[in-house]
Amino acid sequence: MPDFTYIARDTTGRKVNGVLSAATERDVIVQLSGKSLFPIEVKAESKGSGFRIGGKRVSAQQSAILYAQLSSLIRSGVPLMRSLKVLREQASNVALQEILDDIVSRVEEGASLDEAMRRHPKAFSEMATNMVRAGAEGGFLEDALDRVAKFTEDQEDLKGRTMSALAYPVFLGVVGSFVLGFLLLVFVPQFDELFGRLRERGQLPAITDWLLWFSTSVKNFGVPLLIGFVALVFYINVQLKTETGRRRWDWIKIKMPMLGSILLSLAVARFCRVLGTMLKNGVPIIRSLEISRDAAGNLILAKAIEDASENISAGESLASPLSASGYFPRNVVEMISVAEESNSLDTVLVEIADGLEKRTSRRLDLTVRLLEPMMLLVMASIVLVVVIALLLPIFRMSSSL
Questions:
Q1: pLDDT score for 56
Q2: Are strands 38-44 and 49-52 parallel, antiparallel or unpaired?
């Protein structure tokens, strides 16, 4: 039998790799599943070629529609296999059609729905596949699919509202940068010769002299500065690929003025929503914490969540390590603590996420409303300084005539 190299994740989310002997790639996946490993990549050593699981990508919105449609068909009494084939035939997206075709083939071969979905992590999140697995084992697959669809739609809606709110400030920043570049590199240098004589006489105002110096410096050193900026971006990008770099960046994000607290609230809301949704679908709490830790999207919060997972494994509470981290709001921790005592953690976590997202959305709108006039004021101030610096010597020359 040929040897296959594999990369997989264990139940803690850690990547593992190794070599297995099997007749087919499918047999390797079965062996890995029996060891509680989730395959990411399987490659046949003898052929020197392999396949990357989940090469096709579909949008989150398309995934949400798929979950909702599959739930509707199953709820109507259509068998799972027939439902998958109907959705495959109706799919207008080529990538989604190919993914569904692969899922149908694997389910026909005896794989469960969640096992087939795990082959396409770019289309189906780990949270979704775990909820589907819990739903299938618990006999409430259609309900699980509905919750996944709603969760995905809510997250896309929040992402869309956040991007829309930030679009105009970003536009102002880009336009302002181009305007400033035009003034310094094209407009101001045209006055250099005119004001040169005033500089020689010592009659050039300090603000004009500084503006001409700054414009000349940008023009002469613009290319080295640009190269330095590109090198800095490249260095930051390399650092962000390391855990230390990502941790530093996550810390910087939540400490930024104005936006830091908003980003932290959004990360806490994501954690609460994913954890609550998975618990509601019957996924074990340790596994739910592992997945929600990654869903939070912040390594600073991830450390507190890891501590919480260890606490629960030792029979202790979830709230204590979250409170000790200092990053979870006090009211959130108190609600989690009460929910643990009343055995309503899943429901309360979703309610916490709803409340955080609503409050954060309002704060984001307010911040953007404040940011827009501030940026306009800064741009107007820059233009005003340039105009004053250019007009002041002209007024002096005209008054001396």
A1: 61
A2: antiparallel
| Same-domain pairing of 39 and 64 | no
9 and 83 part of one domain: no
Distance CA 11, CA 309 (A): 13
Q: How many domains does the chain have?
A: 3
170-174, 193-197, 204-208, 370-374: which has the minimum mean pLDDT? Answer: 193-197
Q: CA-CA distance, 150 to 128, in Å (whole number)? A: 11
| 131 is a domain residue | no
Q: Are strands 49-52 and 15-21 parallel, antiparallel or unpaired?
A: unpaired
Highest mean pLDDT among 168-172, 188-192, 271-275, 345-349: 345-349
Find how far residue 363's CA is from the centre of its chain.
19
Considering the domain boundaries, does residue 270 fall inside one?
yes
The first and second tokens of residue 278, run together, are 């998975």
How far is Cα 119 from Cα 26, in angstroms, rounded to an integer?
11
Q: In the chain, pLDDT over 90 holds for what percent of residues? A: 11
Looking at residue 352, what is its pLDDT?
A: 93
Instruction: Give the mean pLDDT of the chain.
Output: 82
